[in-house]
Amino acid sequence: MSNGASSQDTYQQLQAALAARRAAKRSDGHVTMGRPLRLVVFLVVWGGGTLLTALALGVGGGLLPILTLLFPLSFLWFLLALWASRIPRIAAQWERAVVLRFGRFQSLKGPGILFVFPVMDVVHWVDTRLQTMEIPHQQVITRDNVPVTIDGALFFQVKDPERAVITVQEYWSAINQYAQASLRDVVGSMTLDELLSEREEIQVRIAESVESRSKAWGMHVDAIRLLDINMPEDLKRMMSRQASAEREKRATITKAEGDRDAALNLAAAARTMAESPGAMQLRTLQTLDGLGPTPSNTVVLTVPVEWHELLRQMRSTATVAEDERGSAAT
Q1: Residues forming beta bridges with residue 125, ordered by sequence position
Q2: In percent, how much of the chain has pLDDT > 70?
Q3: Domain that holds residue 185
Q4: Partner of 34 for a Cys bridge, out of 51, 90, 151, 310, CB 3.0 to 4.6 A?
Q5: 3-class SS at 94?
């Protein structure tokens, strides 16, 4: 049992390390769109420089100077063309370039064509679109000491690329780790019932906690969504039994209320039949019609229906006469 728990913990740690590594790699993603422009610059500088050199050597006269100097000068133009081709860059509409010149912040450029001088400048590309990050499985103990495993998704956007690059190292990894810590803090302060019934409030609290810190890093947290909440199997079985007992309780109460309403309706129907002399006869005929709906069934009444009414009247008359004799005797 302990080996299974330790292997599960190791697996979760590995998943968290892989998520952090993916976050670090995604921070410098850049869509390369300037290759055709750089190729044109390279050909223009190299070809134009070589052609001008050849013309200049030709004007000076002699084939020997051309052969001895053209190839070295062409190689120099080739190196210059390589350097010049690295100067123009193209940033997409959603990209911003943080330019550091000799290690100091120089400017924030983009979108469109921008110029970066190799050797002097270093560029950090930042994606300003709404980005999605996975929050790996987190083992959390709730306030009522129930272990749960929670994972989620974080939606955020870089609002200030300068601060995101200069203030924090690997902002993807930083916001991911802070979101994991905030999730554990918020869930650890709640009971299991609150966790299951107030997911929207939990998501808002985690987002506000991460937002309050990530603002200083130049980022904005759009939302945090909890994807899955896993509990121990024995706890799931107990919750299933509790839900089943609760439903059985509601079913019993509903059946009892139905029996009570049926009894009240039957009592009202009995009073109505007692007040209407022909109601009982109609009810009897309706019952007989229900007993023999097909021609193959035959119902025989040994006592006419009118006799029931006659006996009821005789009993009523006898009761009245007895009451009169009792009152006369007193």
Answers
A1: 97
A2: 73
A3: 2-27+128-235
A4: 90
A5: coil
CB 87 within 8 A of CB 119: no
Could you tell me if 38 and 22 lie in one domain?
no
Give the separation between CA 86 and CA 83, rounded to whole angstroms: 5
Residue 264: band (very low, low, confident or very high) from pLDDT cuts 50, 70, 90: confident
Q: pLDDT digit string (tens) for 126-157?
A: 999 999 988 888 888 888 888 888 888 999 99
Whose structure tokens read 């601060």?
163
Q: With contact defined as beta carbons under 8 Å apart, do 218 and 167 qualify?
A: yes
> Which is it for strands 88-91 and 112-115: parallel, antiparallel or unpaired?
antiparallel
Residue 75 tokens read as 């190689």
> Cα separations (Å) of 45 from 42, 114, 119, 226?
5, 18, 19, 56
- Residue 203, in any domain of the structure: yes
Please calculate the CA angle 264-266-269 and round it to the nearest 5 degrees: 110
- 227 assigned to some structural domain: yes
The pLDDT assigned to 194 comes to 84
The segment with the largest mean pLDDT, out of 5-14, 59-68, 178-187, is 178-187
Q: What is the DSSP letter of 112?
A: E
Q: CB-based contacts of 109: which residues, under 8 Å, 6+ apart?
A: 91, 96, 97, 99
What is the rounded distance in angstroms from the CA atom of residue 209 to the CA atom of residue 203?
Answer: 10
Do residues 82 and 191 share a domain? no
d(CA 112, CA 92): 6
pTM score of the predicted model? 0.63
